[in-house]
Amino acid sequence: MNDSALGLPAGCTARGLIPDDARLVYEIVAASEVHDIGESEVDYEDIVSDWQRPSFHLPEQAVGVECDGRLVAYAEVYAGYRAEAHVLPEHRGRGIGTWLAWWVRQEARREGGTLVGMSVPQGSEGDRLLAALGYAVRWTSWVMGLPDGTVIEPQPLPVGYALRDLGAGDEHAAYRVVEDAFGEWPDRKPTVFDDWAASTVLRPGFEPGLMRLATDPHGTPVAVCLLVISGDCAYVSELAVRADQRGLGLARALLVDGFARGRARGATRSELSTDSRTGALGLYERVGMVVTSTWLHRGIAL
Fold first, then answer.
1. Is the pLDDT of residue 293 over 70?
2. pLDDT on residue 6
3. Range of the domain at 189
4. 85 and 179 share a domain?
5. Are 219 and 241 part of one and the same domain?
6. Are residues 32 and 122 in the same domain?
């Protein structure tokens, strides 16, 4: 770590991160997002849940940069292909972001990766830096919100189908629906159950009523919706429907249900994100949602 830190500005050093750094990292990410898109979309619980995944190992897979004794930037690599990196706005332009991008490539190689990428706000300083370093756009993501006063028309369920809270013992069935649905995306690596659980049902603040299941006439879970309450926002973190159950309106029914539950818990905003791999942008636009920020996932071959 010390030798590789020679590329950092004078007074700055790199070190591995530990769980107690989660609060500082959250503050870095939040400040970065406010600067880039005008608001913070991260929660402290997001950092904690990501770091508690069994396959993720601090301090090897995350690095922090300290300048004059203060943590001002960080990066992490998950499974050798997915990265996050942020630099406090007042410390940008000093070469720290370029060093983090180098560290990300080195760490991804160490983990056996052949291609690594990260998502950045379109047109941001991070976007321009990665483009200059040769990172190509692999897909586009959109954060979408439901404007004030917009009501999504209810979606009746097919005969015999029902919505209910996650129950005891449902976790593996919910995971299977989500993993199979997201596993259809090109180049996506599988997520094991324990990693999925760490960021969903074991996420700090989770309760069964935040994960809703759509069940078929046999009572089998065939669609899943996970809601995260963040301040005044109800955010749909996961929405998945089993392939053979699509076209029945289950996703829309779960979406209406989720946003209604968010309002019942005091949320005044409703949001979700989607990307160009899913083909779902039009679905959300048709129910009245609008794009609030656009992100590009940029990747580079190792």
1. yes
2. 56
3. 149-267
4. no
5. yes
6. yes
- Other C-beta atoms closer than 10 Å to the C-beta of 211 total 22
Angstrom distance (rounded) from CA 213 to CA 196 = 16
Give me the mean pLDDT over the 197-225 stretch: 97
Same domain, 20 and 125: yes
190 prior amide bond cis, ω within 30: no
CA distance 270 to 251: 15
273 in any annotated domain: no
- Could you tell me how many helices (H) and strands (E) the chain has, helices first? 8, 12
* pLDDT score recorded for residue 286: 86
**Entry pTM:** 0.92
Give the separation between CA 7 and CA 221, rounded to whole angstroms: 52
Share of the chain above pLDDT 70, in %: 98
Nearest to 26 by CA among 81, 69, 84: 84
**Domain total for the chain?**
2
The answer to which of 42-56, 62-76, 257-271 has the lowest mean pLDDT is: 257-271
